[in-house]
Amino acid sequence: MFACSTPLPQQTTSHVLMVRPAFFAYNPQTAENNAFQKESTQTEKAIHQHALAEFDAFVSLLRTHKIGVIVVQDTPEPHTPDSIFPNNIFSLHQDGTLVLYPMFAPNRRLERKPALRAALEKNFVITRIVDLTHYEVEEKYLEGTGSMILDRIHRIAYACRSPRTHEKVFFDFCRQLDYRPVLFDAIDRHGQAIYHTNVLMCVAVNYMIVCLEAISTAADRELIFAAAATTGKEIISIDMLQMEHFAGNILQLHNTNGQPRLILSATALNSLTHNQIEQLERYNPLLVPNIPIIEEVGGGSARCIIAECFAPTYNCHNSQK
Predict the structure, then answer these.
(1) Hey, which residues does 157 pair with through a beta bridge?
(2) Which helix (H) or strand (E) holds 156?
(3) Is 257 exposed, middle or buried (0-12, 13-18, 19+ CB in 10 A)?
(4) What are residue 17's DSSP bridge partners?
(5) What pLDDT, on the 0 to 100 scale, is given for residue 37?
(6) What is the pLDDT of residue 7?
(7) What are the residue boundaries of the structural domains of the chain, listed by start?
């Protein structure tokens, strides 16, 4: 199904997994500390139907631009209203390591369903499992590539502390996967800790997008600048209002021809200035799904819906034997 990937370290992939929801809905368990979520005036049935249409169009957009998408159909039971955001549940790394993450909301832990695991095992060579879910009994959490932004080439992991991102689990991840931790604090305009790092930061091959206004102290901003300086990436700054419109919740992928593409929602794009758009387009064309209901009700945007899969595919693995 997919082309073989290079054995050299990669920041981006053309292999992604997305979960088509069985019943997408507002999740009060996550709304406790996700300030991006909002209750809709639409009926639950209408919300779900709109979300499905947005999801299917998003998948079609990626496939049209030669990005390989595995779609897993969620099951009605147990009910998992946030299953559309699989990047929090697992990450799949280039050496074949599958990491499973401890989740804050009890109903999000139910997203670890057999169909998801089966899709990963069917399509990718998994050589090791790092299971961090035992931290749930200690009420310590780390929600995948929501909690962390990974510079995969330079082995740097960025994370902001929050009820969803505990430093003990973060440091354990970094130790087991050989990443250098960069831990900092970030708050929104109301002084609330930002629930996920991936709403304020994106790391691409040649650049980083960061909401510097949200980073609480000069010392923490300097920490990020110092780490970024070692990578040679350009820093593109967004402001607090743009972050609230999901301009940080974006992801760079590449297509099967190896060409980079930046995925960001229409909400995010519309918040950017002409100069910021020009900066981004110097590095990659923009792919822009329109997902307003998913953003409003779920509190997550384009990046959250995509789980990157870096492990070798079976076709590639067999061809190298």
Answers:
(1) 150, 181
(2) strand 156-160
(3) exposed
(4) 70, 307
(5) 74
(6) 65
(7) 15-319
Give the pLDDT of residue 316: 58
pLDDT the model gives residue 317: 46
Beta strands in 101-155 (DSSP E): 128-131, 148-151
Closest to 89 in 3D by CA, of 59, 115, 119, 109: 109
Strands 234-237, 207-210: pairing kind: parallel
CATH number of 15-319: 3.75.10.10
Which pair of tokens denotes residue 54?
A: 């947005």
pLDDT per residue as tens digits for the range 96-137 = 999 999 999 999 999 999 999 999 999 999 999 999 999 999
pLDDT at residue 8 in the model: 84
- Report which of 297, 312, 269, 260 is spatially closest to residue 65, judged by C-alpha positions: 260
Residues of the chain with pLDDT under 50: 1, 3, 5, 317-321
Task: DSSP letter for 119, please.
Answer: H
> Residue 19: helix, strand or coil by DSSP?
strand
pLDDT in tens, 186-214: 999 999 999 999 999 999 999 999 999 99
DSSP string across 208-254: EEE-GGGB--HHHHHHHHHHHHTTTPEEEE--HHHHHTTSSS-EEEE
SS3 content of the chain, % helix, strand, coil (to 5): 35, 20, 40
E runs forming strands in 22-132: 68-73, 90-92, 97-100, 128-131
In whole angstroms, give the CA distance from residue 197 to residue 149: 7
In three-state secondary structure terms, 137 is helix
pLDDT of residue 4: 55
Cα→Cα distances 275→11, 212, 237, 241, 290, Å:
25, 18, 11, 16, 22
Task: Provide the 8-state DSSP code for 96.
Answer: S
Sheet arrangement for strand 15-20:
68-73, 15-20, 307-308
